[in-house]
Amino acid sequence: MAAERHFDPATAEVALRGLRASRKTLPAHLLYDEEGCRLFEAITRLPEYYVTRTELALLRQIGPELRERVGPGAAVVEYGAGAPTKASLLLAALDRPAAYVPFDIAESAVVATAEALRERFPGLALHPLVGDFMDGVALPDLPRPLLGFFPGSTIGNLDPEAAVRFLGKVRGALGEGGRFLVGVDLPKAPEVLVPAYDDAAGVTAAFNLNLLRRLNREAGAGFDLAHFAHRAVWNATDSRIEMHLQSRQRQSVPVAGVPVHFEAGETIHTENSYKRSPQAFLTLASQAGWHGEALWRDPDGLFSLHLLAS
Ligand code: AVJ
């Protein structure tokens, strides 16, 4: 478990930069502190949040075909390995996988994920790797074939430019013959999307507002959480769900000693969740040098898994 974090000049600087812009934004990764990760886990179990259960069912369904395509003795590299459930399913589907690399920015996450798999897959070599996968950290020496794994539609956090950059880094790291299995959430009716990001129980609201509590602690901020409301907005032009924190009133909030002014109704944009059709995703993948080898969708057309090849 990570220690409780107090004032952190880097967080304060990042927060102030975003809050002093004419359109206020905060980087989405700030949502995922310890409490944020706990709340996100709760989101994945909400009735409105179709993403996780749909992807898990799809992974189960495509196991045999994936096993056939990937072949024996693969090494799996998971980008953003926060929990062992999906890797466990994938490894169980593959033909005698040789190695697993959980790669995440949170050391506690990669260690816990590796531990959880050790007992279940005794012969599997485990290489936990800590780092920011946007930086493209070099991989250890691994048996081939290499299969990258990026589930959960986490790629939906990245705008098109960042997604192409990330896909290119992974392609470089996996090298010749590498494949990449990516979970991509599909565009769908706002009547389905908005409740998935603004649930009746208020868990997503708590997840979003927790960012302000984090800034109070780590950026020396004085946010009153009762003065902000969670908003989930479908942006059809950019095909993304946006999460915002909306100021309920005109107010001024100190952040690291600097007053930040809010008009009533003004928002802080905290996260994007892009929804991409197969064509839209494959266009980005091809800009990074990948081509689509296989594509699977659940029967209701909610979610997709792409298998990319170099
Ligand atoms: C972790 C980025 C995949 O976009 O669905 C869920 C984050 N935010 N509900 C998503 C999230 C609010 C989630 N990702």
Task: Explain what you see.
The structure is a single chain. With 310 residues, the protein is of the alpha/beta class. It has 2 domains: 9-31 and 191-274, no CATH class; 50-188 and 275-309, Vaccinia Virus protein VP39 (Rossmann fold), CATH 3.40.50.150. Helix content is 36%, strand content 24%. Strands 1, 2, 3, 4, 5, 6, 12 and 13 form an 8-stranded mixed β-sheet that branches. Strands 7-8-11 form a 3-stranded antiparallel β-sheet, with helices on one face. A hairpin with a 4-residue loop joins strand 7 (228-235) and strand 8. N,N,N-trimethyl-histidine binds next to strand 11. The site of N,N,N-trimethyl-histidine (AVJ) has 11 residues, from strand 11.
Fold blueprint:
Elements: H1 9-19, H2 34-43, H3 50-70, E1 75-79, H4 85-93, E2 99-104, H5 107-120, E3 125-126, E4 129-130, E5 146-150, H6 160-174, E6 179-185, H7 190-196, H8 203-218, E7 228-235, E8 240-247, E9 251-255, E10 258-262, E11 267-274, H9 278-287, E12 291-297, E13 303-309
Parallel strand pairs: 1-2, 1-5, 2-3, 2-4, 5-6
Antiparallel strand pairs: 6-13, 7-8, 8-11, 9-10, 12-13
The protein binds N,N,N-trimethyl-histidine (AVJ).
The site of N,N,N-trimethyl-histidine has 11 residues, from strand 11.
Protein name: L-histidine N(Alpha)-methyltransferase
EC number: 2.1.1.44
InterPro entries: EgtD, EgtD_Methyltrsf_superfamily, MeTrfase_dom, MeTrfase_EgtD-like, SAM-dependent_MTases_sf
